[in-house]
Every structure is written in structure tokens, then in C-alpha cells.
Design goal:
Helix content is 0%, strand content 38%. The chain is mostly beta strands and 112 residues long.
């Protein structure tokens, strides 16, 4: 895998009203649309217990893990854990994305 290169993930029309699990470069990803219709790409693996986000549900622009219901926004930030209070610290994880000419592409970046 080359860093800072764009890789095709799916055709834009493949990402509908439910998350889509895709595999690329030996990795699994979850593609989903937020309420505004923008497509986002996260690692498919929920950081809690390894559930597949690509087989989860959508809730208010977040993807929900089917295993324990953790929810992640478009940046991969966990926004809801059913068993925690609102003031509890929540972990985050994300991948970049872009949609151009009907294709969903992602690129891998080294944090600066």
C-alpha cells in the first residue's frame, strides 16, 4: 500500500441507505452516507469488540456497530456507547474519503 495515493473503494450508487462493507488492499472498510448524502469511509472493525461496521445500521449520520451499538461519526469518532453516561470519555478512529465522478476513493495518510 502506498501512502497518500487514492484507491477506488466502490461506485457511488453502491452506497445507499445502509452501510456497505468493502475490502481493498487487504483491509476491510465500511462506507456510509450521512444525512446530507456525503459518503464516508471508516475502518470496518469496531474498536470495541471487532464487530463489522459495514453490517451495522445508520443513526443520524453515524454508523452503529451491530454487536454492542457503539456509534461512530464520519470522522470515526465514537459518539455513543449505550452503557456509558454522557460525560464518559469515548475513543475515536477514522479514515479519509472522497467521492469524484461517481467513484468512492480513499487515501491513507500519515498523521502530521
Amino acid at each position: 500500500m502506498l501512502i497518500n495515493f487514492w484507491y477506488p473503494m466502490a461506485a457511488s450508487d453502491e452506497v445507499a441507505e445502509a452501510p456497505l462493507r468493502v475490502e481493498a488492499l487487504g483491509q476491510a472498510f465500511a462506507l456510509f452516507r450521512d444525512e446530507a448524502g456525503f459518503v464516508h469511509c471508516l475502518s470496518d472493525t469496531c474498536i470495541h469488540r471487532g464487530g463489522s461496521l459495514g453490517t451495522g445500521k445508520l443513526h443520524a449520520s453515524c454508523v452503529e456497530c451491530p454487536y454492542h451499538g457503539w456509534r461512530f461519526d464520519h470522522e470515526g469518532k465514537c459518539t455513543h456507547i449505550p452503557t456509558l453516561t454522557d460525560d464518559a470519555a469515548i475513543p475515536a478512529r477514522a479514515r479519509g474519503f472522497v467521492s469524484r465522478r461517481g467513484a468512492i476513493r480513499t487515501r491513507f495518510r500519515i498523521p502530521r
